[in-house]
Amino acid sequence: MPFTWQISINRSRNAAGYVYAPAVLDPVAIGDEIIFINNDSTPHWPGLVDATGMAPSSATYFMRYQIPPHTSSTPWVPGVNGTVSFADSLDTKPSPPAGTIVVAGITTVPE
Amino acid sequence: MKTNMIAGALAVVCAVTAQGQVVACPAQQDSLINMPVINSSSVDHTLRATLKLVDGVRTMWGPSGDPRCAKQVIRLLQGFDPAHMKPWPSSGEPIPGPTFRARLGDLVEVSFFNQIDLKNFGASLDKGDMGTMSSCDQFTASTSATTSKDGPAQNDGMPNCIHGSSTTNVHWHGTHTTPSTTGDNVLLFIRPALRTNGKLRPADETRAMNAFSSIYKACEAHGPPTRWTQLPTAWQTAQRALVKEYDSSAVYEGKAGTMPDRFRLWPFDSLEIAAGGWPQYQIGANPYCFPLPKYDSTTMRMGQAPGTHWYHAHKHGSTALNVANGLTGVFIVSGDYDDALHAYYGPAFREQVLMMQQLATVPFPSVPLPSTVGIAPISINGRLNPVVAMRPGEIQLWRIVNGAFRDAVDFAYFEPTSPTSCSSATAPRTNVQWRQVAQDGVQFRAATYEAEGTVNHTFNLAPGNRADLLVKAPAATGLYTLCVARNIAVYVQSTGGPQPPSALLTVSVGGADMSPVQDFIPAERFPVQPSFLADIHPDSIRFKRELVFGPAFNMIDGKVFVDHHFDQAMLLNTAEEWTVKNTASDIAHPFHIHINPFQIFELFEPNSPAAKTRGNPCYVDPDNPATFKPCAAGQPHAPYIWWDVFAIPTGQQIDVTARCVPAGGGAPLLQRCPAPLHDYIKCVSGKCMEYIPGYFKMRSRFVDFTGQFVLHCHILVHEDRGMMQLIEVVSDKSGYTHH
Ligand SMILES: [Cu+2]
User: Which domains does chain B have, with CATH numbers?
Assistant: First the structure.
């Protein structure tokens, strides 16, 4: 069965005030589950970053609702290969991508 | 911006180590791990234990076709003996919970604590997750690089879906005890302990421990409580406060404290308490207290059978995921049976406790996986293909539990270990020998040992089944691989069927020869079966009923599990005969019923090789219902084996639409189908299917305990998704008198 991966949202002294860790989740396979864990005391809501690399194009791409403090999200399950970048859609400042998830096919190890 | 990304990436490394990481897979053929054992006290005949459900990081294997192994956060059980406190092993291996060992007549007192940190798992409320109509666990799946779709898995609906995944309880599988209050009560939903600022509150645990000690004192004096109001007031008050606190603080639709009334738990608890019942929802802890009754003909119709039983999580909606996380353990009840084996073989006689598991963090894929990716492997006691050490010529007692959440395991043969183990058709297979001595924790009679427990007689353990084996090492030292065929049905109509044999474990034969030489116990010395396990006489049958599993994977008798509704009611202290049918053609749904075991006396396997061979006397001819009957060969014979799980043989499904179309054309109609087959055909949505169900017939006694419990498929995802019935044993006594 697929694996489950966690991306933590932690308080940070960086400009944004938070950090998604790991910022790069790799390798993830189709069918794996990814959950976001909010360890911060304010809500967060990772959303998809579109091709322009700017604001999230979809706040509900990974989950339907924001993640309250000290709770976790519902799982997001990649159904296609590719690299998905995300940013925090509740961040009112224009912000760089907060992280990426690399979905690559499972390569079977030759016997 | 660039700098930030790098800083983020560095932070990753530390975080990932704790939370999830692809790692090298553990080497196979490492020595067998023994789970810590908690013994009952021989002084006051009580099994005392604390059983804690926590979460931790363990190394898990990917499914077949996925070469990854990874550190995963899973739910896991830890056990503690209050008289001999020892820390739980902190190894990275996903071992099952503690092995409990008690004797017939003992009292079980297990303090169960659910201390899962909910934050480590995907959001999952009990009665509602995201506020959608279905209330099932939601997930979002990407269908392309930029679009996502969300919903419950595969259009399931409450309560027959994966939900409340950190809520659990303990099913004492194989016990003959009360299904109510503090007994084998699977209708309890025990939520994780509440936390303040993410931290457990030690006072809550202390309060529970104090309450439980007085509950156990009362249980020792009077047996399990019969009413919630008999429990200490302090515990009743504490639970009420905790359930209400959960209701007012749970996260709903992304906000804490906004859960609508219909999803709150206290209203349900308070209704049940007011009706004199037992509140279904508890927070953080639950006391289990029940006797393992020793048979006494003056007070009981049956006793507890001494043997290899087990326990596992059993909350409808979270059973599969919790058992896949490894929330299982072995529960050995000793008695005359194993005393006799130990007496025969002497003090050097060794037992191996083997819990098969199929570990995963996801009970079934949410999106289609590449066709090369299969299902989770079968491990034993937390390792793949571990090594059991034996001396040349030694005989050991192996207590095997199939604690997998999905797969059955067909025990095929041992062969000398080689790089091609289990793939060679010509390897010698007479090295390690076994004889089966018990099934599902009930010892064979000597006659069954002679007939079914013959040397290297293959057997299939469906999920939930147990087998005790006497295993004899060969005289030649070396490594021997046990080859098994995983399956969800041994015989199928066309697709499916067993996987090719693969290695389950390795026996390493070495050291000094056994002296004197050991051999299988002769039938005349075989442990005498207790009298209450004598065959149920056909004349004692009071009622007959029929249950049909399938053809849908989640239905019994054409419907999914319905809350607040009994599907079967049995009169206390009566015997019944059930025909349990399966209309699925590729899945042998393992039928399981709690509290009382059953004896199978007839078996119909429409997909057995003989049944599918034209000209064979056992041939099942789809055009001739007179052939839809068991074949004389291979029938169970008296004395019958006792089971508490049995994989119902698959059936045949034949599309007969073309034979049911009216002469002038148009939609097919049943009355146009061949007349002799009408009883076997269903015409739905323009299609007519003939079903020839496989079945078994069993006899069981519903004795000693009234109460509500369940029967279900032991492919646990099927149970969670609806293949379960609520049943009740009702009293045969009335308070009224007539003059
Ligand atoms: Cu099933």
Answer: 2-197+292-343 (2.60.40.420), 351-531 (2.60.40.420), 535-651+693-730 (2.60.40.420)
Chain A residues whose beta carbon lies within 8 Å of the beta carbon of residue B192: none
Residue A34 forms part of a structural domain: yes
Split into its structural domains, chain A has a count of: 1
Q: For position A51, which CATH number holds?
A: 2.60.40.420
**What is the rounded average pLDDT of the residues B227-238?**
96
The answer to whether B365 contacts A1, with C-beta atoms less than 8 Å apart, is: yes
Q: Please, are residues B541 and B576 in contact by the beta-carbon 8 Å criterion?
A: yes
Q: Which residues surround ligand 1, an ion (CB under 5 A)?
A: B 589, 713, 715, 718
Q: Which range of residues forms the domain containing residue A18?
A: 4-106
Q: Cα–chain-centroid distance for residue B56? A: 22
CB-defined contacts A:B, below 8 A: 207
Decide if A10 is inside a domain.
yes
Q: Do B145 and A4 lie within an 8 Å CB cutoff?
A: no
**Residues B236, B228: Cα–Cα separation, whole Å:** 8
How much is the average pLDDT of B336-350? 96
Which residues lie below 8 Å from residue B689, measured CB to CB, with a gap of 6+? B653, B654, B655, B656, B657, B681, B682, B683
Q: Which residues of B105-141 are buried (b: 16+ CB within 10 A; e: fewer)?
A: bbbbbbbbbbbbbbbbbbbbbbbbbbbeebbbbbbbb
**Amino acid present at B216:** Y
Contacts of B150 in chain A (CB under 8 A): 60, 63-64, 74
Closest CA in chain B for residue A111: B67
The answer, yes or no, to whether residue B12 has pLDDT greater than 90, is no
Phi and psi for B476 in degrees, rounded to 5?
-80, 130
Nearest to A20 among B8, B19, B370 (CB): B8
Contacts of A71 in chain B (CB under 8 A): 118-119, 123, 251, 256
Identify the pLDDT of residue B575.
Answer: 97
Q: Give the pLDDT confidence score for residue A59 in this predicted structure.
A: 85
Of B7, B370, B373, the CB nearest to A14: B7
Bond prior to B89 in cis (omega within 30° of 0): no
Q: What is the pLDDT of residues B109-145, one digit of tens each?
A: 999 999 999 899 987 777 654 444 457 888 899 888 7
Sort A94 into a burial class: Cβ within 10 Å, 0-12 / 13-18 / 19+: exposed
Is A47 inside any structural domain?
yes
A 56-95 residues with CB < 8 A to B: 57-58, 60-80, 82, 84
> Is the four-CA dihedral A30, A58, B157, B126 of positive or negative sign?
positive
Through-space distance between the first and last CA atoms of chain B, rounded to whole angstroms: 93
Q: What confidence tens digit (pLDDT) does each residue in A18-34 have?
A: 999 999 998 899 999 99
Among B4, B254, B370, whose Cβ lies nearest the Cβ of A67? B254
**pLDDT at residue B4, as a whole number:** 35
Provide the chain A residues 9-38 that lie in CB contact (below 8 A) with chain B. Answer: 10, 12, 14-16, 19-24, 27, 29-31, 33, 35, 37
Distance of alpha carbon B140 from the chain centroid: 29
For B11-25, B352-366, B724-738, which range has the lowest pLDDT when averaged over its residues? B11-25
Taking contacts as CB-CB distances below 8 angstroms, the residues of chain B near A109 are 67
Q: What is the pTM of this model?
A: 0.94
Flag whether A111 is in a domain. no
